[in-house]
Every structure is written in C-alpha cells, then in structure tokens.
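Tutorial, part two.
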Amino acid sequence: MSTKSKWMLSGISSVLALTILMPTVANADKLSDLEQKQQEALQQKNELTSDISKKNEKMTENASKLEKLMAKIEDLNRKIEETTAKIDSVQADIDYTKAEIDELKKSIEELERKIAEREALLEERARAIQKSGGSVDYVDVLLGANNFVDFIDRFSAVNTLIEADREIMREQAADKKLLAEQKAQVETKLAEQEQRRAELVALNDKLNGQKKEQAGFVEELKAEQKRLAKEKSKLVQQRNEAINVSSKLEKQIEKEQNRLAELARKAEAERQRKLAAERKAAAQKARASNSMSSYTAPAKVSSSGFITPTSGRFTSKFGWRNIGDGPEFHQGVDIANSVGTNVKAAASGYVSFSGSMGGYGNVVILTHSINGQTHATVYAHLNSIDVSAGQEVSQGQRVGGMGNTGRSTGSHLHFEIHVGPWNGARTNAVNPASFVSL
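Running the prediction step on this input gives:
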C-alpha cells in the first residue's frame, strides 16, 4: 500500500471515529444535564416539603391558639351567664325591696298619721293649759275633794291623765324613732342593691367586651388558617409537579444511562476481543520461536473487575452510621488523604456525570459494563475534576483530585459501587469492600 493510500485510509478512519464519538459525547452531556435537572427538581421538592411542614406546624400552632381562645370564650360565656343570673337575682331583690318600700310607705303613712294626731292632741292640751292660766294644778284638784271617796276618784283621774300624757310622749318618741330607722334601713338596703346591680352590670359589660375581643382574635386566626391552608394547597400542588418532573427526568436518565451502559458493554467486549487476539498472537509467536520468554501477561485486576480508586486511610464503612445529624445510611466508603491525592477510575467506562451535585460536592459518576453486568461508580467530594460527561475512561485513569467539597468534614474520597445504573435515592449501592481492597 502506498503512503498516499495509507494517509487517505487514516483520514477516513479519523472521520469515522469522530462521527461515532460526537453523538456519544452529546448524549452524555444530555445525561449530565438531565441529572442536574433531576437534582434541581429533587431539591425543589425537598424545599417545598420543608415549606409544607412549616405550614403544617403553623396551622397546628394556630389550631392550638384557636382551641385556647374558644375555651376562653366558653369560660367568658359561662361567667357572663353567671353574672347575668346574679344581675337578675339582684334585680329581683331590688324589686322585692321596692315592694317592701311600697308596703313600708303605707306603714310610714300610718305612723305619720298617728304622730300627726298626737301632735294635734298635744297642741290642744298646750292651748288648754294656756287658757287656764298657764298650768294645771293637780294639787288644787285633789284638795278640792268634798270627801275621801271624792279624793280617791280625783286622785285616780289625775294619775290617769298624767299617765296618758306620758304614754303619748313615749309612743310619739318611739314612733318617730321607728320611722327614722325604717326609712334609713330601706334606703340603705336599696342603695346597696343598686350599687351591687351597677357593679354587676359593669362586670357584664366588661365580660362582653372581652368576649368581643376574643371573638375578633378567633376571626383573625380563622382567616390565617384559611390563608395557610390555601398556601399549603399551592405548595402541595407545586411539590406534586416537582415530583412528576423528577419522575420524568429519572426515566430519561435511566434511558440515557442504559445507552451509555450499552456503549460500555460494547467497548468492554471489544477490549476483551483485542486482549484475546493479543494473547493468541503472542502464543503463536512463542510457539513459532519455541520460547515463552518474550511473552508478558497483562496486569491482572481483582476478580470483581475493579481496582481501589485511591490511596489513603479507610475512615468510614458502608452501612448505617451517625456523624451528628442522626442515623443515616452511608452508601459507600470513605478513604482519607491529603487534598489533590490522585483519584482513579476503578474500571473502564463512560462518564455519565461530571460536576457539582449537592452533598456530594464535586462528583464524577462512571458507567461500566463488568462481565456483561452494568455497574456505576461514584467519586465524591473532589477538589478537582479531570474528566467531562460522555468521555470514555480507562481503568486507572485519573478522574480528579481528592478534596473536601459538599457535605464533608475533611479531605477524603467518598466511593460508591452500584450494581446497575446509578439511580440516586433509589439506591442499588453495594459494599465496595466486597469488590476492592481497602
């Protein structure tokens, strides 16, 4: 074959290689974008769930306040009823006292009549005494008796007159005193009852004012509950939409990862075919030269098909753990070393994601085909990333440098192995210690 022909064949091969590679890179970039969108949708869903939880807490708090206010209003209603009953009772007492006063007025009128009669009688006696010379000499009456019997009769009459005058004066004084006491008593009693009624009416007005104020609070809280319920409903709808978007993206991601896994399977099959051909050619050459000294077996990896991705100290195992935020499931293992320590591809494959992803920080996700089975490996908390989405990588090739990005407490590599494509929260992660030496 001429040099020109070789050059043309080489050019055609390069064009074909670029033609095959470009869709792969483009589709892998699409996968990276889809995964990024999925992360954004999941983050939005989590934020909305948090907001919904806060709304629920606020609604529960408001419901508690409403319950307390309703209890307070019920207590006020009870007090108002009691006060109203007391007012009615006092009013009944007042009505009774007024009836007593009406009866007493009749008694007072009778007393006043008797007092007036006595006053008239006393005035008449006073006038009689004045006409007789200014006084009545009871001694002259007695000495004017004709005989002893007449004297006795006169003495008895004089005593009767004197006692009558005294009785009139006593009754007059007693009736005046009784009249004054009765008037004072009923007036005091009525004044006390009127005062008590006024106090109860004021208390009732106060209780009704408090009830009106509490009712206002109730209406405000009910309006707030209605507003919160409306906002919650809107957030739930948005979250459902985010979940739907996430589900749709997951299907697209799964489809794209399956495509990359198929590429990885074909690439692995091609590598195996080439390796077998190289071994066959080496064996034939050895037999031809009747010597095996020139044959060098290729480097072996573990039976799992993976190699340890970095060097350092094994610091955290696969499974349940607690690092301060409560129990959580650790989907991989942690290997600690200094920032920038070389991180290598644990197996050959394709980069399905390259970039920042929440708690992972800077992360690279590779899709592999090992013994016909799709696998995914995750390299998280990287300080630097040296590969891009869609890129084909070889086992042992550097994918980045160890770091402390994302949810991390020190420089280390978080390494995961998944049987099947990487699927985020619906994990199919397995213990990397079963596949590589730690």
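Confidence is low (pLDDT under 50) at residues 1-26, 291-300. In part three we will examine how such features are distributed along the chain.
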